[in-house]
Amino acid sequence: MVLRDRDCTMNSPIVHGNKPALIYGQNICIQPSVPGREDTPHMRKHYLGHLDPLESYTTFFVLFSGGKDSVASVLNLLETGVPRSKIVLIHHDIDGGSERKMDWPATKAYCIAFADAFDLEIRFSFREGGFWGEVYRYGSKKPVQFQDADGSMRRIEPVAWQRSQELKMLMDSAEREDDLELFKQYDEELRSYGYRFQFPAKGANLQTRYCSGVLKIEVGSVAIAHQVDTKENCKIMVVSGERRGESTNRSKYNMMELHRTHAPQRRKRIVHHYRNVIDFSEKDIWEVLKRNRVVPHPCYVVGWGRASCACCIFSSPSHFAGIKEILPSYYENIRLAEIELNFTLDNKKSIDEFVGSAKSCVDHNEQKAIHQLLTGEIGPEDILLDHVEEWKYPSGAFRSGVGGPC
User: Fold this and answer.
1) Disulfide: which of 34, 56, 210, 399 matches 305 by Cβ 3.0-4.6 Å?
2) Cβ neighbours of residue 14 under 8 Å, at least 6 residues apart?
3) Residue limits of the Phosphoadenosine phosphosulphate reductase domain (predicted)?
4) Burial classification of residue 202, based on how many CB atoms lie within 10 Å of its CB (0-12 exposed, 13-18 middle, 19 or more buried)
5) Which is it for the CA torsion 187, 189, 190, 191, positive or negative?
6) CA–CA distance, 359 with 303 (Å, rounded to integer)
């Protein structure tokens, strides 16, 4: 039975969050807690009945957001005995170098500090232009950049990227020459490659809730598929921290499946996807962090229930009231974009109407965390408590309603 986050409290029992057995090196296959689904073409294509022994995988790529669930995923791997040298954290930068921001200023710094504290390798990836570049997309998706095994950045262009750039120049020329028919022709072709000018939809469909698909899932797949150390003759495990208790949609996810970069014939590349904390409740997740004395991302400490993008589309009114209070430029970006796009972030209300008179979720007793959240001044010494300090639940714990559903 799944304990939903909205029903989970500090007094909920610990079911899956106790320290796991050391199974690495024991030739133990991992069986799913719930049999994998095969009820759709996608599920049948990616079905995986079990995971091979952990020691058989050459690399463990953890999709690492810096949120509590991805942190617990990493800690779970370490506690089961996976060597640090085999674990690589991959963090997707949602802002993609854009001047206009959507994600927390502290997130990248927290991820780097966490990796340093646990002596783990971390690599970064992003889609150029980030969230706002995708909101205003006209033509092809933008290129993906990712950090390779040697630390260098590589750039992968979508198939239609160069043609989209060419069409934009041709349109400029047609406009200067006042050739309306030619302009319309180029415009029609450019739009065929993609046209958004609207916010992602609040729903499970990743075609319309494109922020997850385009800025995270696709970016991660490009990064993993093109890594020098995953091109051929390798066996990879991709680990992510989705949990059944987060939402109805995620409750239906499989614990294990073939990853979209799996290419056993063409590349002799075996890639399995493992959601190792999928059955954990929120209480279980916090227990893992508590046992390892890990300080969570400062957004939790300040009062947020989730560490998704600072301005996640699923945020509640109190969440956005908090953004308006401590990151007013972020809030203003959304408000002005709604006017420019004539399309609101919420399905029915402007951001101002949605927030209304909601009380900010910010806990002003946590001034250090507020400073970290806004400046990104976080080091490895801020990640682990010493044995004298008491670990305590952050202000945002068990407040899933503040962060909204996934």
Assistant:
1) 399
2) 283, 284, 287
3) 61-312
4) middle
5) positive
6) 12
The first and second tokens of residue 329, run together, are 């430029």
Q: What is the CATH number of the domain that holds 383?
A: 3.40.50.620
Q: Is 6 exposed, middle or buried (0-12, 13-18, 19+ CB in 10 A)?
A: middle
Predicted confidence at residue 228, as pLDDT, reads 74
Residue linked to tokens 């030619």: 182
**Residue 380: how many other CB atoms lie within 10 Å:** 14
Distance between CA 27 and CA 110 in Å, rounded? 35
Q: Which domain holds residue 279?
A: 16-137+196-403
Determine the Cα–Cα distance for residues 169 and 175; give it in Å rounded to an integer: 10
Q: For the chain, how many structural domains are there in total? A: 1
**What are the Cα distances from residue 232, in Å, to 224, 225, 271?**
12, 10, 11
Is 4 contained in some domain? no
Per the CB < 8 A criterion, the answer to whether 359 and 401 are in contact is no
* Domain presence at residue 81: yes
Q: Which two tokens stand for residue 41?
A: 């073409």
Per residue in 105-163, pLDDT (tens digit) is: 999 999 999 999 999 999 999 999 999 999 999 999 999 999 999 999 999 999 999 99
Assigned token pair, 291: 């046992």
Task: Dump pLDDT digits (tens) for 338-364.
Answer: 999 999 999 889 999 999 999 999 999
Give the C-alpha distances (Å, rounded to integers) separating 113 from 45, 62, 240, 379, 381: 38, 16, 19, 5, 8
**DSSP-based three-state secondary structure for 389:** coil
Question: Is 190 contained in some domain?
Answer: no
Asked if residue 162 is part of any domain, the answer here is no
pTM of the model: 0.94
Whole-number Å distance between alpha carbons of 256 and 345: 33
Q: What token pair was written down for 30?
A: 């991992």
Q: Using an 8 Å Cβ cutoff, are 121 and 115 in contact? A: yes
Q: Nearest CA to 259 among 243, 240, 241, 244?
A: 240
